[in-house]
């Protein structure tokens, strides 16, 4: 009898382990992809794992992290939610905020540079919020497909970038802004972890708490999984749609400040290279493409994978055309894989 009980107990433990492993594999397939990249880079160049390179990666791709956070809420809200405008909205916000900071610095040489940076941030977030509000109202009140309205907003932001800059690079922000990506931060011995690497991580953690621990986060997930049930539960689905697109715009505005911070000058074309890494990070992480399923942990692994992939290609000296080719192959492969996983996930 005892032998039979032990056998059943062992079998039950094996089943639980196997089911847990399958659930992990379906929720976080990006972990295996991340391991592959790390193993390959470990053989090719071990300096890839140096503290200096890790800090450089977090700093250089900080705006991708922040932009992707806003997209997580859009994707989870369902309704085929996507924000195609986020790249150029980030670019346009960066252009206007940098120009604003430059004009303030020139007109008021004695003005506190941190006050100038705060005003630049307010301008940037306001622009992002206006685009987000436009997208949200169009989706929630006029029932325009997110793909269509955000594509239109993308073209609007792109046009405004060129009108505002006449095709020239904008620069001239306070030096204190660029110091946030180099000299201002946490000192650990001779190593400096700049604020440009720390701030995105802090924001990411805060928004992970908002998504998982607050009523609003639960409402977003319920809206994405079943809008009718959300309505019956007293949730205003229209309000949720407006808020998530507004959030996406605000985070685009925040991300915009990291462009002059980390790069210096803001090119009017900068938005062209921002959209796909942000979208890919969220979807590759395993956030459901139909909404209602996913969390910040998944998005975090997706962001980490995209950053490692981009950094690895740069580290190995690949030119931009080769990088774009490799990047496209990975996205096509992972999107196909995740489409298959989407059908299998709830059968576990």
UniProtKB/TrEMBL annotation:
Keywords: Cell inner membrane, Cell membrane, Membrane, Transmembrane, Transmembrane helix, Transport
Native source organism of the sequence: Anaerotruncus massiliensis
Subcellular location per the Swiss-Prot or TrEMBL entry: Cell membrane
Any one of the GO CC terms: plasma membrane
Top-rank taxon: Bacteria
Name of protein: Autoinducer 2 import system permease protein LsrD
MF-aspect GO terms: transmembrane transporter activity
Pfam (any one): BPD_transp_2
Record's bilayer topology term: Multi-pass membrane protein
Transmembrane segments: 30-49, 61-82, 114-137, 144-165, 185-211, 240-258, 270-287, 299-318, 324-341
KW Cell membrane (keyword) present: yes
Main location: membrane
């Amino acid at each position: 009898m005892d032998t039979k009980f032990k056998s059943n107990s062992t079998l039950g433990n094996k089943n639980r382990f196997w089911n847990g492993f399958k659930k992990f594999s379906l929720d976080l397939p990006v972990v295996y992809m991340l391991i592959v990249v790390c193993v390959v880079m470990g053989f090719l160049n071990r300096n890839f794992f140096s503290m200096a390179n890790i800090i450089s990666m977090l700093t250089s791709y900080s705006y991708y992290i922040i932009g992707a956070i806003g997209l997580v809420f859009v994707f989870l809200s369902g309704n085929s939610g996507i924000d195609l405008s986020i790249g150029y909205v980030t670019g346009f916000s960066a252009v206007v905020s940098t120009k604003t900071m430059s004009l303030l610095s020139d007109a008021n040489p004695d003005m506190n540079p941190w006050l100038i940076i705060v005003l630049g941030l307010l301008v940037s977030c306001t622009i992002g919020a206006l685009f987000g509000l436009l997208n949200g109202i169009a989706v929630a009140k006029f029932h325009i497909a997110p793909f269509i309205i955000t594509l239109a907003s993308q073209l609007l932001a792109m046009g405004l970038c060129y009108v505002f800059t006449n095709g020239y690079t904008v620069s001239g922000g306070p030096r204190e802004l660029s110091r946030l990506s180099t000299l201002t931060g946490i000192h650990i011995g001779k190593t400096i972890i700049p604020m440009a690497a720390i701030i995105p991580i802090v924001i990411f953690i805060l928004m992970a708490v908002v998504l998982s621990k607050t009523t609003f986060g639960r409402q977003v997930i319920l809206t994405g999984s079943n809008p009718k049930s959300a309505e019956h539960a007293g949730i205003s689905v229209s309000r949720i749609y407006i808020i998530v697109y507004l959030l996406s715009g605000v985070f685009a505005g925040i991300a915009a400040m990291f462009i002059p911070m980390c790069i210096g000058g803001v090119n009017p074309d900068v938005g062209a290279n921002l959209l796909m890494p942000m979208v890919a990070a969220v979807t590759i992480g395993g956030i459901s493409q139909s909404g209602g399923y996913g969390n910040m942990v998944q998005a975090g692994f997706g962001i980490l994978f995209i950053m490692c992939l981009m950094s690895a290609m740069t580290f190995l000296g690949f030119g931009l055309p080769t990088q774009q080719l490799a990047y496209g192959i990975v996205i096509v492969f992972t999107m196909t894989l995740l489409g298959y996983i989407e059908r299998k996930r709830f059968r576990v």
